[in-house]
Amino acid sequence: MTARTLVIAACFASLPLTSLTAASSTDLVSLVSKPALAGAADTPVLSIQLVAASGETKPQTDDSDGRLPAVIFPPGFEVLPIDGDESFIADWYVTRNKLVLADSSLTADPTSVLIQFADNTPLALQQMTLDVISGRVINSWPLVPGLLHVAIPGDPDKVVDFLKQWGDATGLVEFAERDLFYRVGAIPNDPSFALEWGLRNTGQTINGSVGISGVDIRMSTAWDTIRGSSTFVVGMCDTGIRRFHDDLYSNMWVNSVDIAGNTIDEDRNGVVNDTWGWDFWNNDRDPTDDNGHGTHIAGTVGAVGNNSRGVSGVCQTVRMAAIKIASATGSLSTTTAISSINYCVATRIKVSNHSWGGPGFSQSLSNAISAARTAGHLLVCAAGNGGSDARGDNNDTLPTYPASYNFDNVISVAAVDNRGALAGFSNFGPTSVDFAAPGVNIISTWFTSNTAYVYLNGTSMATPHATGVASLVAMRYPTWTPGQIRARLISSSRPLPALTGKCVSGGMLNATAAVQ
Ligand SMILES: [Ca+2]
Ligand SMILES: [Ca+2]
Ligand SMILES: [Ca+2]
Ligand SMILES: [Ca+2]
Question: What is the pLDDT of residues 69-102, one digit of tens each?
Fold first, then answer.
């Protein structure tokens, strides 16, 4: 048996030495406090002896009912269980949500951090690490083994700094980072006569703006090929959905596998009784929209077609899972985003809409999207609305995440108006934005009543056009990978002069060509 001795200077004075001593009771860790080793008297110094880890492993196997798991754990991974104290976790959500509702300018969660443990890190050493920072596990995800969302009492920046040093010294922590915040974003317009120019543009005047005939996504002829499917589920990761809206109700997904009214997660996707999807922001089973953004986007993907009312989604028939990841004020976090992707993969949802973003790179989110790629999941993402000045930026030099994660299961969508011009607010990027879709004066369902509609502007509105077309392609070609679907949407785009050099395709989404 080999032993390594490591000396770690703790970087903040509030280090709870007593909890460290408690961790030494296991046979995996021999932990001794040696304050005398430090140069500075007020800096606690620990000597940690790592005695050959026993390497307990728990590889995931096939479910007993014969369904293949969506995600296979790498051998050797075992993740600390979520803190068993349900009231602590419930309180944490309430506290976090109050902080965010009170201050929408927060750029990261002040109460928690993300920790990625290295492969084969024994549970006792994970727990010891948490003890050092007085951390308690809020969440973990089968999609990203070893990643923990941890509530902490101290300053998150200091904790992240400490965990980096701790990781360098011990090899236990691959990385640690803040739980970054992002925003859903749309620019409201006054309601006026409902016309969906983005689906079919005859040059009609929309909200005072005269259109150019043919600047549309060629939807009506695409519907000659495919109009949708009542078995295809699309993940709507946003502020929730008003699911009883007259023009949405019959296209909403109802999860019949997870039976409500019990305590069993029958479909084993990680949440219990998720009948309509899930609310990851409030951690409850009711993903009703309290903002509006998500209901608008849902109407563009899948308002019921041919029902003699309102608008039609790109998919006339589809099943939309309401996956609420954002607050009433439109803020969301890395961790709610990861939860939504984990949920989609675990529920075998192939395509998801992400009309949100921000400038913060997250290694955790990047890893989750990479794992989703392996699992065959496609994310359709908004290129972004130009940051705080609402003037479009070049994402090649100023990335917007998640749209700018460079994987072939991520589509980045810019916005055009009804005259074929790139919207002034729309981000662009010759290599990082894939194509444009209608995003100015977009009429869709609204959350204030079951018969409400409203116009909105934004790459948030362009994105669901692409999500709808990607879903139609996935329905038509069920064996295609996300990369194949993305490549089809890019190659079938119709060039527009204003988009030359502004995106990969130099063009606008073309549903008719995409579904051929
Ligand atoms: Ca159940
Ligand atoms: Ca479930
Ligand atoms: Ca809720
Ligand atoms: Ca309709």
Answer: 334 444 455 667 776 688 999 999 999 999 999 9
Question: Of 147, 165, 183, which residue is a domain's last?
Answer: 183
pLDDT score of 118: 93
Query: Could you tell me if 427 and 392 are in contact, meaning their C-beta atoms sit under 8 angstroms apart?
Result: yes
Residue 43 token pair = 């800096």
Q: Is 355 a catalytic residue?
A: no
| pLDDT tens profile 317-344 | 999 999 999 999 999 999 999 999 999 9
Relative to beta strand 187-188, strand 45-51 is unpaired
Report phi then psi at 432, rounded to 5: -110, -10
Alpha-carbon gap, residue 440 to 198, rounded angstroms: 9
Q: Where are the beta strands (DSSP E) in 393-465?
A: 410-416, 435-438, 442-445, 453-457
Cα torsion at 320, 376, 179, 127 (round to 10°)?
A: 120
Structure tokens at 63: 């479910």
Catalytic residue check, 54: no
What is the pLDDT, as a whole number, of residue 188?
Answer: 57
Examine the domain organization and report whether 162 and 270 are in the same domain: no
pLDDT at 229: 97
Per the annotation, the verdict on 296 as an active-site residue is: no
Task: Give me the pLDDT at residue 116, please.
Answer: 97
Tokens of 485: 């679907």
- Of 155, 183, 211, the last residue of a domain is 183
Question: Which of 238, 268, 235, 279 is closest to 253 using CA atoms?
Answer: 235
Specify whether 153 is located in the same domain as 214: no
**Same domain (yes/no): 139, 189:** no
What residues make up the domain containing 137?
3-57+67-183
Q: Cα of 298 to ligand 4 centre, how many Å?
A: 12
- In sequence order, the β-bridge partners of residue 116 are 147, 175
The catalytic position among 340, 460, 471, 505 is 460
Instruction: Band the pLDDT of 187: cuts 50, 70, 90.
Output: low
pLDDT of 157 > 60? The answer is: yes
Q: Over the stretch 111-141, which tens digit does the pLDDT of each residue have?
A: 999 999 998 888 999 999 999 999 999 999 9
Distance CA 428, CA 327 (A): 27
Q: What is the pLDDT of residues 275-312, one digit of tens each?
A: 999 999 999 999 999 999 999 999 999 999 988 889 99
Whole-number Å distance between alpha carbons of 193 and 410: 34
Q: How many domains does the chain have?
A: 2
Q: In 10 A of CB 98, how many CB atoms?
A: 10
Residues whose beta carbons lie less than 5 angstroms from ion ligand 3? 279, 282, 284, 286
CA dihedral 262→268→270→272, nearest 10 degrees, is: -10
